[in-house]
Amino acid sequence: MRVNVLYFGILKDLFASERNSVDLPEGATVDVLLSLLRGQTSKQSEAWRTLAVAVNREYATLSTVLREGDEIALLPPVSGGAQGRCGA
């Protein structure tokens, strides 16, 4: 089966892409997908441990079973931001 993966934050840099189609065996879970993708990157990132995953725009767990055509968004934590007061 084929799923569509959307990369955000540092993962977009690691994969040099905003999206990709990935072939998986039937019955694969989010955990299987993440393991496959981690193995495709040469640089290991802390983002993999604290990643939020959404399947078809709903948050998912590692045990969520994926289906043909699913859209999986990989959302690493956001850091940084402006210092000081807003509107100052």
UniProtKB/TrEMBL annotation:
SUPFAM superfamilies: MoaD/ThiS. Keywords: Nucleotide-binding. It comes from the Bacteria. InterPro entries: Beta-grasp_dom_sf, MOCS2A, Mopterin_synth/thiamin_S_b, ThiS/MoaD-like. GO terms for molecular function: nucleotide binding. One of its GO terms (biological process) is Mo-molybdopterin cofactor biosynthetic process. PANTHER family: MOLYBDOPTERIN SYNTHASE SULFUR CARRIER SUBUNIT. This is Molybdopterin synthase sulfur carrier subunit. It comes from Edaphobacter dinghuensis.
